[in-house]
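Tutorial handout. Part one gives the primary structure; part two gives the three-dimensional structure as tokens.
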Amino acid sequence: MSTPTRPQSTDLPVIEGEIISSSTGPSYTAYASSADRSAGAHPYAGPSIQRLFGPTQQVYLGRKSVLLAGLLGLLLGPIGMLYSTFFGALVTGFVTILLAVVTLGHATLFPFPACALWAMWAAFRRNERARAMEHYLAGR
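Part two.
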């Protein structure tokens, strides 16, 4: 699947952030920026690879609040678990419904503390994976 590119005409203006084809070949695409155009680059050439992926580029992957995940799991049960884990919300939702049917609704709130613990664990694990991925990407 290829990215659509603009025709190679010099009379068309280049909009900042627009995907354009570069002079290095038809398969490579880059973003045009006003800094590249002011540096005297051809309007359809795009920035260099060093400029796009410089050694100081930092990657930050979003974090989930472990405290918020626990509070939502404790107060809302399986619905609150959707913040941190979709699969966990499905499992605990099924268990909650099963307990409600078997006990005629008397044990409906019983899984809520387990929901809070599972949600906190899922948020913590997600944050650990995000830190590991950031560390891996920083070393590249």
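Part three, for discussion. The radius of gyration is 25 Å. The chain is about 45% helix and 10% strand.
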